[in-house]
């Protein structure tokens, strides 16, 4: 469940049941990725059935049913043109886009189109841009958000154009990118489609990534692979994506302090395995100067009336995290007022640090727990924050088997700018997970329909290939932060960066390998059979 507030509103409008009568109990379900943001029609049917029967109703969906009915993603066909001047600088970009909507519009189905336009020109200074989107209804499963929801799609298209331009101009792929980056001194930068990128340092990110990948040493590694009968290629992507803190009218949290000195944070933003307990708890603990074990995070408590956006769009740390920080500061101010009463002083005379209230006017010290002995202290804080724009550079190397077309990712690294990092392990985990999801899309994932009936033919994991651990080697990642001005914490989103960057990087690497045998173009998925067929045709 990604969005309790969103689903309450949807189900209330469908069934007429007041929002405050809808109680959600959710657990860690191992990921949402856009699939669990909206309320599905079955939820309303369950409510109506339970009311009619006067007893609980349980619904269990099989894997096949999920494939056939749950929202799908990435059903796009894109064509376009990139214009350059004689010095290799981008001057204009034109794009024609067809997005399969499926048989009917699902809730939030247009989100990935909107998100495509937010980052239409990527990290590059392109003065003029044009895009025409056609959104036909087809006989396929409805489309919805999937990790990145439009940002990986446009990043892939833009980066393919940049690679092609470098090839035709006989320029190094990295050099062409550096030449066309938005200058560091141009931020905040307004794009032709109206987005305002707040801050970035793409030249610095690129230089750091090139060093991490040993870009200059690739020729020697390619020669070594050739001696083993393998085709080796190197790929690069320099991308930016919008994190969606601005997609909610408001984020609210409640903080309470009890007599045991425990601070409890209540939120309706719900994790599905991405560590809200650690991230939000750390934010509160840092602001209060206390240890993390003294902070308890409660998500989506049954009957909660808090307002908040869903967890999609890498928005939680920016939105809920910022409000949690402000809530902790408000708790300190409320505590100062109570401490002042206890010490018979003015609140302005009270200082706070590391869990204690002190004053130069008194020898007494009061701990956090002391001011909540009479009754639990509670504060409610809300706030609205705009979008942030995390960015990065990912570089990958692949080997292609000449005889079978099988592809192996042999090296993968990235440098990401997600602003201030709250927890490095969680950032690394988010990026790694996104990279593997992107690799799955590149090398195999595809929904296949029967041409006559429209029936999906890949409705189980027997027919639909999922990425496995061995698909991508150990991820080597670094961070290069520029501080966001949107959030008081300086944070940006990171949950979708790995997916956004890995898709164009891995395709770039694979095509770089295949060009040595005459293959100049190939669309995803890059399956062994497709690659082998292309190599045979290229001979």
Description:
With 539 residues, the chain is α+β, with helices and mostly antiparallel strands. It folds into 4 domains: 4-69, no CATH class; 72-160, Aldehyde oxidase/xanthine dehydrogenase, molybdopterin binding domain (Aldehyde Oxidoreductase, domain 4, 2-Layer Sandwich); 199-243 and 387-539, Aldehyde oxidase/xanthine dehydrogenase, molybdopterin binding domain (Aldehyde Oxidoreductase, domain 4), CATH 3.30.365.10; 248-383, Aldehyde Oxidoreductase, domain 4. Helix content is 33%, strand content 19%. The chain contains 13 helices and 16 strands. It has helices spanning 4-15, 41-53, 63-69, 111-118, 151-169, 173-180, 202-213, 218-227, 276-288, 316-343, 424-443, 497-514, 528-538, and strands at residues 76-84, 90-99, 128-134, 189-190, 196-197, 230-240, 251-257, 263-267, 295-299, 351-353, 356-359, 362-367, 377-383, 391-401, 407-417, 476-479. Strands 6-14-15-16 form a 4-stranded mixed sheet, with helices on both faces. Strand 10 and strand 11 form a beta hairpin. Helix 5 (151-169) runs parallel beside helix 12 (497-514). The radius of gyration is 26 Å and the shape is globular. It starts with a helix and ends with a helix. The relative contact order is 0.13. The mean pLDDT is 90.
